[in-house]
Amino acid sequence: MARILVIEDVPSVMFSLRMVLEGQGHKVATAGDGAEGLDRLRRDAFDVVVTDIWMPGKDGATVIREGRAAAPGTRFLAITGGSPNSANGASPGASPGAGIESLRQEDFGADRILFKPFERQELIGAIDALTAGS
User: Fold this and answer.
1) Which of 22, 30, 42, 56 is most buried (most C-beta within 10 Å)?
2) Which residue has the higher pLDDT, 93 or 36?
3) What is residue 116's predicted lDDT score, i.e. its pLDDT?
């Protein structure tokens, strides 16, 4: 099974992600913010990093960019509920009425992206796809 680092600033979400992934037999480490997550990634090897995008301090896009430099073989799964800058979840600079569906994994440098709220099976499927062949 995979070694997974979950970076999430909301404790209940982090706990839920950890329980689902450990339930699938993965070894899971956690970090409560981007800076802590990058420290862990630089110290330990992970197959996949699951990172929230909108966190205080170092956001998920920064985690992905710096994480790729530190651990080029690691895959990145971004999770997001949209942008913190608008009520409807649009990305900054998006046209009025654009919602989270207008965001793409390329917007953050992720290998895959899941939009909150997502189902347990969507998370499992994304991790399976990212770890296929490893």
Assistant:
1) 30
2) 36
3) 87
Bridge partners (DSSP) listed for residue 30: 6
Average pLDDT over residues 124-128: 97
CB 123 within 8 A of CB 20: yes
Which domains does the chain carry?
3-131 (3.40.50.2300)
64: phi then psi, degrees, rounded to nearest 5: -65, -45
Instruction: Please state, in angstroms and rounded to a whole number, the distance separating the CA atoms of residues 47 and 92.
Output: 31
Confidence of residue 97 (pLDDT cuts 50, 70, 90): very low
Question: Are 32 and 14 in contact, with CB atoms under 8 Å apart?
Answer: yes
- For residue 64, give both structure tokens: 């992905």
**Which amino acid, residue 49?**
V
Token pair in block for residue 82: 């949209």
Distance CA 61, CA 78 (A): 8
Q: What b-and-e string marks burial along 60-72, b requiring 16 or more CB atoms within 10 Å of the CB?
A: bbbbbebbbeebe
